[in-house]
Amino acid sequence: MSLNVSDPAIADLYEDVREDKSETNWAFFDFAAGKPDRLKVSGSGTGGFEEFLAHLKSDVAGWGYVRLNLSNDEYSLRVKFILVPWCGESVGVMRRAKLGIQIADVKSILRSYHIEVPASQLSELDEKDIMTKLRKANGANYDRQLSNY
What we know:
Elements: H1 8-18, E1 26-32, E2 35-45, H2 48-55, E3 61-70, E4 78-87, H3 93-107, E5 115-116, H4 127-138
Parallel strand pairs: 4-5
Antiparallel strand pairs: 1-2, 1-3, 3-4
């Protein structure tokens, strides 16, 4: 069963998070009430990663899209995006099973991101760990000190 992602609000919010001039830096998408095959906007905000985490609940499944700023110094600020497939611990077995299939439909809308960080507990979404993963995905790591020189 494919997931209906046709609500224009989904694409609009995705573009808003990606927009450099927008203050919106996260979005969360889950299922319309009584419609397990229809994606809807569940929340968004300007309060950064911590505000995004506060939106995640143990009985909810959905997908988060977050803009983060990554820099090695004040001159090298880069914007990075993460996709967070979220399946809270209290989500039922049938819903869990469908998420793996439905993510392809979600990725047809939320198509540009640097890393994917699946999680079912808030402890799996440590911002410091995510920033480390983003740096590794970047390639070169200029923060590391060279001990042989």
